[in-house]
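Lab meeting notes turned into a lecture example. A postdoc, R.K., suggested we walk through two folding results consecutively so the class can see how the record format repeats. The first protein's sequence and structure tokens come next.
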Amino acid sequence: MTHHRIAVLNAGGWGTALACVLARNGHAVTLWARRAEQARLLAERRENTTYLPGVRLLEAITPTADLAAALDGCHVVVVAAITRGLAPLAASLAPLLAPDAIVLVATKGLEEETWRRPTEVLAAALDTRFTGALAVLSGPTHAEEVARGLPTAAVIASHEPAAAALLQALLGAPPFRLYTSTDVVGVELCAATKNVIALAAGIGDGLGSGDNGKAALLTRSVAELGRLVQAYGGQTATVAGLAGIGDLIGTCTSRHSRNRWAGEQLGRGRPLAEVLAATPMVIEGVPAARGVVALARARGVELPICEAVYRVLHEGQSPAAALRDLLARPPRPEAPLAFP
């Protein structure tokens, strides 16, 4: 395989993990940090002690806070910003990006207030000179495990199959197995919604709902994902794959999942503001709950679990009351989602 110079933008846990994978695959990686002090510490310590402690950065990774320097000579760019930082980064990136670059978006969530998907945010920032391709990476990919080389599978979706195939070749190598897809909409909607469901799973854990309750929650969440994806033109088959069921299982059951953890704290009675203040990590499911519910209501899609999470987070309903309301909904036949 030809080795490339690749830029990874944003030195959080996920960006650092992806930089580690690329470096292990033999690529020269520039890892861009938002703050000069962070870039300096990464270069000196060869470890991201804040977001990914215990993982050594290979010498092939060059940290920098200079965005132009990070992008210099790179025709493959990985964007791993959190959703609220994506639009400003995209605006800064656009004039520096090679016109024929391939951009892999590793952000999961929705832009606040506009509720645009990550690739929509990037596409809006790029001008007409851009002739390259956008792709999105998703699936059950906890940074802690990916960085340490534990077995992982994920999906890369792009409207340009050749771009997805190239990214698959550059990033995918045992034990990091990648599949490709053309369903960008489905993959991104699953990625945003699974964080909301993880909050629900955590709330159930905090309330002591048990294994039966979690199994029921995950199963009915698949139906909600399918309805939302269908409403926006995605493929229901995506829901049955790594971006859907795969990420649901990982995020709703893992000790690494910050959204599940946050939900558990809420279920135990901690106020939301206290939970958010207790971690430096971003709990993406909190704003995503507003976005997912807004998108569903705009298309008349019924999402009872996501609506329940929304009420707990943003309308002050108690977790116990939200659970009671869910279980008290009128009986109905089970209508499993059909996967073509």
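The second example is placed directly after the first for contrast:
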Amino acid sequence: MKILVVGSGGREHAIAWRLAQDEERHEIFCAPGNAGTAAVATSIAVGAEDVAGVAKWARENGPDLVVVGPEAPLVKGLADELLSIGVPVFGPVAAGARMEGSKRFAKEVMDAAGVPTGRAETFTDAASAKAALARYGLPVVIKADGLAAGKGVVVAETREQAESAIDDMLVGNKFGAAGAEVLVEEFLDGEECSILAMTDGESVVLLPSSQDHKRVFDGDKGPNTGGMGAYSPAPVVTDAMLPEIKEKIVMPVVRELKRRGTTYRGILYAGLMITPEGGRVALSGSRINVVEFNARFGDPETEAVLPRLGGSFATALLHAATGCLRDEDIVVRPECAATVIVASAGYPGSYEKGKEITGLADAEAAGATVFHCGTKSDGGRTLTSGGRVLSVTGMGATLREAVDRAYAGVAKVSFDGMFYRRDIAHRAFERG
């Protein structure tokens, strides 16, 4: 198959890499790709958010499938544009991508579908949002309604923190248009996990569970990031929970979107909160609640989940894109996987770019797989070009083996100012 992967991060490198593992020999392209994807795909000088540019390339080159990695081009209607010229695309149309593009819209769909989630209200006025805080107690969650690169969520422990977050978004315009509306939301007690559900708009197949680490520092301290690491499977998600997640969370959303005239094809990512026995149950009354929905593969979850998939990945993607997804399209290997994000000093705030990266081949020789998140090639050198620079993944028969292999790979990598969390999968190990 001729396949175009849209995007330039670790998620897209993982998608292209996994497609290259198929027994079939695919012709893979990335738009625009990065220094890592160049090893498995041909880079196209078209930006991921250049909808017209991607569509022009597809029209001229006739790919069998386009796989859209990031959320922004989906929200902008890239899938709609590709479908209009007859190109199969893995990723929802803009109306479906609103599940991520607008948290208010996602809440409306969940409420209509009867999906358990935290109570929330939406505001455009800071004074009204602050007045609502008394109705929610503490902690309370403040969210920017739109896309904010994974950073538009604040879990406020004090009223002062909540009011500051509201002011940052509605008064200080910290997230631009994404923060023009904010949600004041019920705090959900428990442990978060991620379920990536593949759907063709009718059928749903759950991919292996995973858990990412959103806070920047060890011990889940510091500000939220786009993710500092992930592992799969997540022990907090038991086999007994999977039918409930599919039938009471994912399928109702797919059906509600279909009722509204939107056939959702691609990944519907459910960020879930699992409340333990004895924990504070949400107002929904359920122990499993939706924190958020995303309209694409997660990052860095993808770098931990895709290495666990067997079979033909391209076939699974194509079947979802063309309305004929089957349970047997997803084959899960028994090994565990863990990935560690190596980041630039200052992330998730400001950071410098252009630092030379060394040790990449040594990391691979140590048994890890290195996915490039924010890199670029400069002659024979590989340089940093983002806050999250690398996602180093290890596989193993046990989670401990997978984590150790990932960190063995990280130890071989070096660039000025690099840092990473040293406690990936700590929740799983604490469970015993």
